[in-house]
Amino acid sequence: MIFDWFQNIEFKYPWLLSLLLLVPVIVYEYLRRQKRIQSSMLVTTTHFIGTSRSIKTTLLHFPFVLRILAIICLVIAMAFPRKVFTGQQTEGEGIDIVMCFDISGSMTEQDFKPNRLEAAKAVASQFVQQRPGDRVGIVIFSSLSFTLCPLTTDHNTVLTQMQNIESGYLQEEGTAIGSGLATSVDRLRASTAKSKVIILLTDGVDVGGSVPPDLAKQMARQYGVKVYTIGIGSEKEIDEVVNSPLGHITQKRKLEYNENLLQDLAQTTGGQYFQATDNEALKKIYDSINLLEKTKIKVTEYHRYTNAFLPLLIAGIAFLLLELSLRYTVLRKFP
């Protein structure tokens, strides 16, 4: 309990706490003096008499203990302990950002480490942490689209939801880029932010959906939403192990990638198109977007203090008064 109290306390005059070093000296001197006073010579005719105890002998050292406690409390009170409450005030113009993830089966391709989706999540998480003051939301899509996290400044929630994204989350397979983009635009439609951004991450192979990409693109233009498209992957060939009547064999397979669609979406909405071919390239892309979309945020940190010396001061005075009352009543010495 005392340890927890000190963890939340700051001292205005911490150097005064050095006076506590005198306490061991005072205790040592008191014990040395008591030993000198109590030293005596054993008398053979009285050694068989038991030591008699009274209230005075029982409380003999109690006033000294009270005085030590009083000194400790008063010294700590003099150091002016106070509780600190730290807060932040944010002023300026943030950006509303929707992270739109393709979670279709093609995002499990392992041309990225460990795969496309996991690499995208890792880099996107770093990006979110670099955007203090911005509202961030998450939309995921395959053949369907879904708002996983609405726009919020609670980035811990965003990061938690992002880590929960998995391929097959929406069960139905496919890649409906238009539906994912339309849902993202809808999240930003009522936004009053001066800058509204969608970061669309996909391999760009659209297989149709309830909203065609052209319509979603026009929606983005109408509501002033910029779309940054990140094409993750390439059309290179990879080795793939497949089952055959002869057992497991390795064959070449060309990866799918639609660069033209992603370029068109970005160009029409005033954003930019990027292609990521590996983990490092993906990180550089997010760094570039971070520089392009500047946030005008001023964060002011303030501290509020609550004095905590009064209980210690009262305790110190109480210990002193109790010591004096004992010395001049129960433990009073008569000449």
Brief overview:
The protein is α/β, with parallel strands linked by helices and 335 residues long. It contains eleven helices and eleven strands.
What topology emerges from the helices and strands here?
Layout: H1 2-7, E1 9-11, H2 22-38, H3 55-58, H4 62-78, E2 81-93, E3 96-102, H5 116-129, E4 135-141, E5 145-152, H6 155-163, H7 177-188, E6 196-202, H8 213-222, E7 225-232, E8 237-244, E9 247-254, H9 259-269, E10 273-276, H10 279-292, E11 296-307, H11 310-327
Parallel strand pairs: 3-4, 3-6, 6-7, 7-10
Antiparallel strand pairs: 1-2, 2-11, 4-5, 8-9
Helix pairs in contact: 2-4, 4-11, 5-6, 5-10, 7-8, 8-9
Tag the structure with descriptive keywords.
alpha/beta; 2 domains; 6-stranded mixed β-sheet; 11 helices
Task: Characterize the structure shown.
This protein has helices at 2-7, 22-38, 55-58, 62-78, 116-129, 155-163, 177-188, 213-222, 259-269, 279-292, 310-327, and strands at 9-11, 81-93, 96-102, 135-141, 145-152, 196-202, 225-232, 237-244, 247-254, 273-276, 296-307. It is of the alpha/beta class and 335 residues long. The protein folds into two domains: 2-85 and 304-327, no CATH class; 95-294, Rossmann fold. The chain is elongated and about 105 Å long. The mean pLDDT is 82.
